[in-house]
Design brief:
heterodimer, A: mainly alpha, ABC transporter involved in vitamin B12 uptake, BtuC, two-stranded antiparallel sheet, 74% helix, B: mainly alpha, 17 helices
Chain lengths: 292, 356
């Protein structure tokens, strides 16, 4: 029973991280229907920005965190402006391959600057944040993650519900042509959604870096694990991403714990194929019914 | 005596059969034959063993890229699992050769057929999914096949890999760069010929109709799902065939090379070469293979030269960066690829020096 509870807690915390990493991905897809294969590299860039500010520049924790977020925001705008804007209206294959090419470029740059070794942040979280209830032991980083994740989820919920930019973004996601004819600046909305998505991705990357250490190979692997998560939750549902992430995390830890550790990496993809065959729009995704 | 066709000054086509010709002029046909003869007779003696190895790699990659182009460029179904299918072909050939002691001219086509079956299984989602959902399904296929190749120990011997017996034609050994040069280029010529002609038949036209507008295709009575599966099958056959050639050429295989980045490399070949162009796939294979080799060479030099070696920088990731940059630049600047660039160059020289 103890083993079961440990797996449960571990699975939920890992899954929550997956969900958090998937949020930025969903945001890009929601507004511009771009399938971002460079998502893992965006996570890594956030983590490395933070690393540069906190280890090399030796800035205080909060300032480094904010500066890294600003860096990711600007990078997101730049990516949209230089690479994605010329491709508006082009066939899907070009958009997908462009993000694949971007992923290779970013990975190359990161490896050139920081190398492929594991880096760690200095420890800055107070021990009192951790939770200790008998068998259930949650290290401080996880509870901090939970708080940060919930905070961001709430902020984005409010942003999409009430702010005018958020409403523009939702309108573009819903129907691009109608939004355009009502005077929404669609290109600016794309830029903004890439910026916000890069920011969220960077934030998740930093959190992952705090927990597992910063390594570009691990982080880009997580970028691929985002796919089962978002398909399960529904490609355009931010809340679905979190729930999908938790389900995938639980499945992974339970197969790792009870069946075999080597199976745990492939199980999400088996689930992915099954969902695609049975319920392609996921748990909370928008259904587009088409009979061809 | 047949009258030779040279380029007319303008478009004088009167029948659809003239639109469908492979070579628009006899001049082109002549160049094709001369090129092939030169490739077979002179290249093996001019090239050093290392060059011959690279040329062989280009030939194998070109076969796989032609297959992927049939799927992506002609049928419009994006697959991220081509690298895994290549691996399935390689393993099929290795297992057939070691367990059943079959000669190579049986194992290689048979490996292609086995891969075609597996490709069709992973193409089944295309019945319900299209566009990016299908792409994600093939991505999952890539990971599942990769897992099976590594962990199905009784069949694939896991991480130890399989060593193939030397390739023999009756008693004459083909092993080595030269023997395989002929094998690979005969195969490439044959497979290229089949692909070019397949695209001129009703099957090819059905693929193109599905790519251009699947609803209209369905409305015209093309059974879409069956043709999509067929396209997956043909494309995987090419991948498996190339993989089997590769396995026989290398002599021993492990599951390591057949990962997602191999799939990405094949898609890069198809895009950089030109979507929907068989000759484009060959240009793409040449471009990507040469890019990989020259970048490996250059980073090697950079690593050993004074300044960089002294600073202790690792220049190997530069390869990855430039590979990504090449893909991005082609998509942004010439999305129709090298085939289109070649067409532009050719047509600007066609009426030279009196072009308008």
């Amino acid at each position: 029973m103890d083993f079961f509870i440990q797996l449960l807690v571990g699975g939920i915390s890992v899954g929550f991280l997956y969900g958090l990493s998937a949020m930025g991905f969903v945001m890009i897809f929601k507004s511009s229907s771009v399938l971002n294969f460079a998502h893992g590299e965006l996570l890594a860039i956030g983590a490395y920005f933070f690393l540069a500010f906190i280890v090399w520049a030796k800035l205080p924790f909060l300032l480094a965190f904010l500066l890294a977020l600003v860096g990711c925001f600007l990078l997101g705008i730049m990516i949209e402006r230089i690479f994605l804007r010329p491709l508006i209206g082009e066939p899907l294959i070009f958009v997908i391959m462009l993000t694949v090419g971007l992923a290779a470029m970013f990975k190359g740059i990161i490896l050139l600057i920081w190398g492929g070794n594991l880096h760690t942040y200095p420890n800055f979280l107070p021990e009192t944040l951790g939770i200790n209830w008998g068998v259930v032991r949650i290290p401080p980083v996880y509870s901090a993650t939970l708080v940060i994740g919930m905070l961001f989820l709430l902020l984005f919920g409010l942003f999409f519900k009430f702010s005018s930019q958020g409403i523009y973004m939702r309108s573009v996601a819903d129907n691009q042509r109608a939004a355009l004819s009502l005077g929404v600046h669609v290109k600016r909305v794309f830029a903004l959604s890439w910026a916000i998505a890069a920011l969220v991705a960077g934030m998740s990357g930093m959190v992952l870096g705090i927990i597992n250490g910063v390594n570009v190979h691990d982080l880009s692997a997580i970028g691929l694990k985002v796919f089962p998560v978002v398909i399960l939750g529904g490609l355009d549902s931010i809340g679905g991403a979190i729930i999908g992430g938790i389900i995938i995390g639980l499945l992974e830890t339970f197969t790792g714990g009870y069946l075999s550790p080597s199976l745990r990496d492939v199980v999400p993809y088996v689930i992915l194929v099954l969902i695609l065959l049975l319920k392609p729009y996921g748990l909370f995704g928008l259904k587009e019914i088409e009979r061809v | 005596m047949k009258k030779f066709h040279l380029h007319p000054c303008g478009n004088f086509r009167e029948r659809y059969t003239q639109e469908l010709t492979v070579f628009t002029t006899d001049f082109g046909r002549l160049w094709g034959v001369i090129g092939f003869v030169l490739l077979v007779t002179t290249v093996p003696w001019l090239a050093s063993p290392y060059m011959l190895y690279i040329i062989n790699m280009i030939g194998i990659a070109a076969i796989a890229a032609i297959g992927l182009n049939i799927l992506i460029g002609f049928t419009g179904q994006i697959s991220l699992g081509h690298g895994a299918f290549f691996g399935v072909g390689a393993y099929a050939a290795a297992i057939l050769a070691t367990r059943f002691h079959l000669p190579f001219f049986v194992t290689i086509p048979l490996a292609g057929l086995i891969t075609a079956m597996i490709g069709m299984i992973f193409g089944i989602p295309s019945g319900r999914l299209k566009g990016l959902y299908l792409t994600i399904a093939t991505l999952a296929g890539q990971f599942i096949i990769e897992y099976l190749l590594i962990h199905w120990d009784t069949l694939t011997k896991g991480t130890a890999g399989i060593t193939l017996p030397p390739t023999k034609l009756l008693t004459f050994s083909l092993q080595g760069d030269l023997g395989f040069y002929y094998l690979i280029f005969l195969a490439l010529a044959g497979m290229g010929w089949i692909a070019v002609n397949l695209m001129r038949t009703r099957y090819g036209r059905a693929f193109i109709a599905i790519r251009d507008n699947d609803r209209a295709a369905e409305g015209m009575g093309i059974p879409i799902f069956r043709y999509k599966l067929l396209s997956f099958g043909i494309s995987s056959f090419y991948a498996g065939f190339a993989g089997a050639l590769w396995a026989s050429y290398m002599g021993s295989i492990t599951a390591e090379p057949f990962n997602l980045s191999l799939s990405v490399e094949y898609i890069a070949m198809v895009i950089i070469g030109g979507l929907g162009s068989i000759s484009g796939s060959i240009y793409g294979a040449v471009f990507i293979t040469l890019l990989n080799e020259s970048l490996r060479f250059m980073t090697g030099i950079l690593m050993n030269s004074g300044i960089v070696a002294a600073s202790g920088l690792n220049m190997a990731p530069l390869r990855e960066f430039i590979f990504g940059l090449a893909i991005v630049m082609f998509i942004l600047i010439e999305p129709r690829g090298l085939a289109e660039l070649w067409r532009i160059t050719r047509s600007s020289f066609r009426l030279w020096p009196f072009s308008y």
